[in-house]
Amino acid sequence: MHRYRPLAFALLAWLMVGCANGDLERFVYDDGETDRRVWTFERQAKDRWLGSANDVEGPVVARQVGHVFTMSYPLDVEISGRTYTFNMDDWMYLQPDGRLLNRTAMKKFGVTLAEITIVFDRQPTDKALQE
To answer: In Å, how far from its chain's centre is CA 98?
Structure first.
């Protein structure tokens, strides 16, 4: 039987790409524009975390149960020159092979408008730091 590592430990060690104080997400859009989100998490209890990100307003409460990590937060998105606030509902699952599966529902007025699935695979630190 394979034992999962606690996701909180894995999340902080797994998604880190050398950022001194947080987890880094890099985005490249169809038009070539790039963006980045830096997450910082602080443990509040065994199964609760408080997070913040450079482009997320206010604190984000996250929960961890075994190999599952979940958080919901508002995210402002610019579309055709207008800014819309969406509610993001993230669910991350640490897989037995070490990959991290991230499923996100993007909602407005409680209606799911988009679903996003991302698979994070480990990269050597020196490659991950290259931009």
So the answer is: 16
Share of the chain above pLDDT 70, in %: 69
pLDDT one-digit tens code per residue, 6-51: 344 444 444 433 344 455 666 666 677 777 888 888 889 888 989 8
| CA distance readout (Å), 45 to 13, 23, 34, 65, 94 | 18, 20, 35, 12, 20
Q: How many CA atoms lie within 13 A of 96 on its CB side?
A: 3
- The model scores a pTM over 0.85: no
Q: Domain ranges in the chain?
A: 7-121
Question: SS3 helix, strand, coil % of the chain, rounded to 5?
Answer: 10, 60, 30
10: its two tokens: 């894995």
Q: From CA 25, how far away is CA 11, in angstroms rounded?
A: 12
